[in-house]
Amino acid sequence: MAGSRNPDLAMATEQIVPVKLDLHADPETIKPLLSGVEAIVFTAGSRGQDLLQTDAYGPVKLMQLAKALGINRFVMLSALYTLEPGKWSEKLKNYYIAKFFADNYLVNQTDLDYTIIQPGILVDEAGTGNIALGEQGLTSIPIPDVAKVLATVVDKPNTYHQVIQINPGEHSIEQVFTELN
């Protein structure tokens, strides 16, 4: 299942069934949509239009529902430096505050098996299938590579309870997460 505020725009495949999921809805409305879900991969973003409801409280609401429903795996797409306020861009400060709230809640207020993925600037370019981990400054990374990272880490226990910075690199995504300690 792929929850989306605009499921008609989501690409349906054999593995992806788009459904309407409104992060502004009350938890009891969202709860039935999570029936049978084994992991949540949170990729929603407000694009600066609705920071509190979407980027801050939206993921927290899903974390709380995950806990209540026994869904232990939670993968969060975040942004580079969200947990390091001293490195925030002044221009994007409100965005970073919202992301900090959600990421900090996931790390410190839940016992979920989380992985937080922190890419740099997402760009709409063809993916390479390769990445590097760790701090390299604010780099651009193709959206398909970030999507592949998210899909790869879902079933990798070696990524549990980690905040992982990703950048363009020379190593295959699968190799990087197979070898990660």
UniProtKB/TrEMBL annotation:
Domain NAD(P)-binding: 4-157
Cited Pfam families: NAD_binding_10
Protein name: NAD(P)-binding domain-containing protein
Organism: Limosilactobacillus gastricus DSM 16045
